[in-house]
Design brief:
Elements lengths: L1 E18 L8 E21 L4 E6 L2 E2 L3 H11 L4 E9 L9 H17 L3 H15 L5 H7 L2 E6 L7 E5 L4 E6 L6 H5 L2 H20 L3 H14 L5 H10 L3 E5 L5 E6 L1 H8 L4 E6 L6 E2 L1
Parallel strand pairs: 3-5
Antiparallel strand pairs: 1-2, 1-12, 2-5, 2-6, 3-4, 6-7, 8-10, 8-11, 9-10
Helix pairs in contact: 1-2, 1-3, 2-3, 3-4, 6-7
Length: 287
C-alpha cells in the first residue's frame, strides 16, 4: 500500500464574473478573493486491484464527495487501483469557503504524488472536476497562486492569469444562514446575468488600485448589486463595518471581515458561528 497526505487552503471569492468556453482549462471566472489558513487535509491510500475503485470520506463519514471523486478518477485514468481518500474539513461546505475545491485538490495532490505525477496534473484534474460538476468556477485557479488574488483572465494558470496582492491579514468568518449550492446559482440564467453585470467591471477597478481594502469595498458593492446578499447578510456587513470592513463570501450565507478581530468576533457572533484565520500564502502542499 502507498500513502500520502496533503493540505489545501480554503478560498473566499469576493466578486466574480462567470466565463465559459469550450475548453475546460480556460473556463472559470474572473474575480478576486483570498486563500485561508483553514482548509482541507486529505490522506490517500492506494493498493493494486483488478479494477479501478475509489472511496471517499469526509470528516470520518463515508461520502460521495462528487468533486473529489471526479478528480481522483481523472488522475487514475485507466490504472487498476483501489483508492481510498479521507478528508477532514476545517470549515463547513456550501458556505463560500471553497471546501469542495480544497478537498478535491488536497486529495488530488496526494494521489498525484503516489502515482509519480506532477502537481500541475493535480491542479488540472481538480479544476476540471470543479467545472464539470458545477461545484465552483475559480477556486482552484486562485489556489494555484495563493494569498490574496485577482483572477484577471479566467481559467487555470498558465491558461488563466492570476496575480497576487500583498497582505496576510487576520480574517473573521461568520456562517449566518443555510447552505447555498453554487451550481444552483451559476446555472440560473437570471442570477448569472446579474452576477456578470456587476462582476465584470470590478476586476479592472481592483487592478487599478490593488489592495485588500479595495477588494473588500468592491466585494461589498458586488454583494448588493448582484442581489445575492440576504437581508441578514447585509445587516451583519453593516454591523461589522463599525469595526473594520466586511462582505459576503461567494457563494454562501456567510460573511468575511477584516479589522478589529476581537471586536468583529464579538459583534458577528450575534449573527452566527465564528471562525478566525489568516490569509494563506503557502498554497496547497504535501504534509
Amino acid at each position: 500500500m502507498k500513502r500520502a497526505e496533503a493540505f489545501c487552503p480554503g478560498h473566499i471569492t469576493g466578486f466574480f464574473e462567470i466565463c465559459r468556453t469550450d475548453d475546460l482549462l480556460s473556463t472559470g471566472s474572473r474575480g478576486a478573493g483570498l486563500c485561508l489558513t483553514l482548509g482541507a487535509r486529505s490522506t490517500v491510500e492506494v493498493t493494486d486491484s483488478s479494477r479501478l475503485s475509489v472511496r471517499t470520506s469526509i470528516d470520518n463519514q463515508a461520502s460521495t464527495a462528487v468533486v473529489t471523486m471526479h478528480a481522483l478518477k481523472a488522475i487514475a485514468g485507466t490504472r487498476k487501483l483501489k483508492i481510498s481518500a479521507s478528508t477532514t474539513l476545517d470549515l463547513p461546505v456550501s458556505q463560500g469557503f471553497g471546501m469542495s475545491a480544497a478537498g478535491s485538490l488536497s486529495a488530488s495532490i496526494a494521489l498525484a504524488k503516489i502515482l509519480g505525477l506532477s502537481k500541475q496534473d493535480a491542479f488540472e484534474a481538480a479544476h476540471k472536476a470543479e467545472i464539470e460538476t458545477g461545484g465552483g468556477l475559480g477556486d482552484v485557479a486562485a489556489l494555484y497562486a495563493g494569498g490574496i488574488t485577482i483572477r484577471k483572465r479566467a481559467g487555470l494558470p498558465p491558461v488563466g492569469d492570476v496575480v497576487r496582492i500583498d497582505g496576510e491579514p487576520e480574517i473573521v468568518l461568520c456562517v449566518i444562514g443555510k447552505k447555498m449550492l453554487t451550481r444552483n446559482i451559476i446555472r440560473n440564467p437570471a442570477k448569472a446575468r446579474a452576477i456578470n453585470e456587476s462582476g465584470s467591471k470590478k476586476v479592472a477597478q481592483l487592478a487599478r488600485s490593488p489592495s485588500i481594502y479595495r477588494l473588500m469595498e468592491l466585494s461589498a458593492q458586488f454583494a448588493q448589486e448582484s442581489g445575492l446578499a440576504s437581508r441578514k447578510i447585509l445587516e451583519a456587513m453593516s454591523a461589522a463595518s463599525k469595526l473594520g470592513t466586511a462582505s459576503m463570501s461567494m457563494l454562501g450565507n456567510s460573511v468575511f471581515a477584516i479589522g478589529d478581530t476581537a471586536g468583529l468576533t464579538r459583534v458577528l457572533s450575534d449573527y452566527g458561528k465564528i471562525y478566525v484565520c489568516r490569509v494563506d500564502t503557502r498554497g496547497p502542499r504535501l504534509i
